[in-house]
Amino acid sequence: MRRSKIQTPTGMHDILPEDQKYYQKILDVCQKMADFYHFKRIETPILENLELFSRGVGLATDIVEKQMFTLRTKGGDYLALRPEGTAPIARAFIQHGFQNLPQPVKLWYFGPFFRYEHPQAGRFRQFWQAGFEVLGEKSPAIDAQIIQIFYNIFQELKAKNLVIEINSIGDSQCRPYYKKLLVNYLKSRAMVLCSNCRRRIKVNPLRVLDCKEEKCQRIIAGAPQIIDHLCQECKNHFKEVLEFLDELGLPYHLNPYLVRGLDYYTKTVFEIFEDSKEGKEIGALGGGGRYDNLIKFLGGKEVAGCGAAFGVERVIYLMKQRGARLKEPSLPKIFLAQLGRLAKRKALRLIEEFRKNKIPVSESLSRDSLKAQLKIADRLGARYALILGQQEALKEEIIIRDMETGKQKTVKLEKVIKEVQKLLKKLK
Ligand code: HAM
Q1: pLDDT at residue 324 is higher than 90
Q2: CA of 84 to the centre of ligand 1 (A)
Q3: Distance between Cα 33 and ligand 1 center (Å)
Q4: Is the pLDDT of residue 1 over 70?
Q5: HSE on the CB side for 302, CA within 13 Å?
Q6: Are strands 384-388 and 266-274 parallel, antiparallel or unpaired?
Q7: Which atom of ligand 1 is nearest to the CA of 84?
Q8: pLDDT value of residue 362
């Protein structure tokens, strides 16, 4: 009987050694940005109580309705693989009493997230996000600064023609009335809408606004817009955010249909895209907004919040399409070759001496032929080959061979570290 090969689950991928450099580069850029804007790193568990997302993200959202990987533990707890990072950050804020810290609290994270989605370009079931969140500050300046941070990150990673789409979806003051208007409008046209939107009218009418079906789009085009029904506070807040974006020279488009797929948002919501063929293939690079009720909703005090996250694989896709040149780690200048059992034993010990002295060294301990080892040293671009032959091992000596000039000399084994340090210094 032939056994089938076991592969990664659908929509999940190994991050192979050759791809690590992209993740590292993105992590480095985020770290630099976090340091500049004073964000502290936080990592929350991959698994959380299911209720955190059903309450935080919203029962009637696609994420909670359809996309969560959930499980029941042997002890009977219901857990979910985290589909997003904001609700966990809000949970951590409450759990660790962060309201007692000087406000605002600025946090960032970088890790894997999970959504049971139909895999396609830029959409996976396990994907990485980098997120930045500011908790404990209501000012619209924060909304603008969050957008600026993401814009900076994408620019540093060489994304081009970035477009910011922005909208305000109001708050508990003004949104209920707008929802009523929208539902009335949609109800009288329900026959023309897709079945999903017909259902959404009841459970989450705002989501009808970002349906991509053509027949729904025609109805949406005539729908009342929330921007015309904001309360004074939301109107002022949005106006100020836009003024700050103007001041910063950030290019934005008002998109009255942008509502985002998570229920915790209040006031500002935004998404950033790359306006290019590749950008269109993968969708939004990142998105976020303000969530002034989330912490209270999860049982904490009234604490405002604003943040965003971006999809790491989507950015990597663009980097690869552009042939981004990333710095490869430099190869050691020293190669240690050995010949014979005794030499191999001494070589193993010598490698540890090099490590303790912080001198990178490569070797090919699995090879016995000197010729083969020197060939590898050449291929790796090593400047010096250290050759520990049978004779040398017996006499506690080692040959240092300059691979460029072919010159070589023999030194005492106990002196080799010092000799190599001198040679490396001259190369600088
Ligand atoms: P989101 O829009 O659901 O927001 O996700 C943010 C970004 O993660 C998306 O723009 C996209 O680049 C990436 N992403 C989402 N789903 C997938 C997927 N299945 N495969 C690959 N990439 C994906 C949030 O998650 C919010 N927590 C953002 C936020 C932070 N809002 C406030 N603070």
Answers
A1: no
A2: 7
A3: 19
A4: no
A5: 1
A6: unpaired
A7: 25
A8: 97
409: CB partners within 8 A, 6+ apart: 399, 400
Asked which of 200-204, 302-306, 410-414 is least confident by mean pLDDT, the reply is 200-204
State percent of the chain over pLDDT 90: 94
Task: Read off the pTM.
Answer: 0.94
Distance of CA 178 to the CA centre of its chain: 35
115: Cβ below 6 Å to ligand 1?
yes
What mean pLDDT is reported for the chain? 96
Residue 308: CB within 6 Å of ligand 1? yes
Is there a contact between 295 and 93 (Cβ–Cβ < 8 Å)? yes
Angle between helices 341-356 and 416-427 (to 10 degrees): 60
Q: Which residues contact 411 (CB under 8 A, 6 or more apart)?
A: 397, 398, 400, 419
Q: How many CB atoms lie within 10 A of CB 93?
A: 25
Amino acid at 62: D
Give, for ligand 1, the residue of 52, 126, 127, 143 to mutate: max count of ligand atoms closer than 8 Å to Cβ.
127
Ligand 1 pocket check for 129: Cβ under 6 Å:
yes
pLDDT tens digits along 251-269: 999 999 999 989 999 999 9
391: left (phi over 0), alpha (psi -120 to 50) or beta: alpha
Question: How buried is residue 233: exposed, middle or buried, by Cβ count under 10 Å (0-12/13-18/19+)?
Answer: middle
Ligand 1 atom with the shortest distance to the CA of 285: 12
Instruction: Give the model's pLDDT for residue 130.
Output: 98
What one-character-per-residue DSSP string does 229-272 give? G--HHHHHHHHHHHHHHHHHT--EEE-TT---S-TT-EEEEEEE
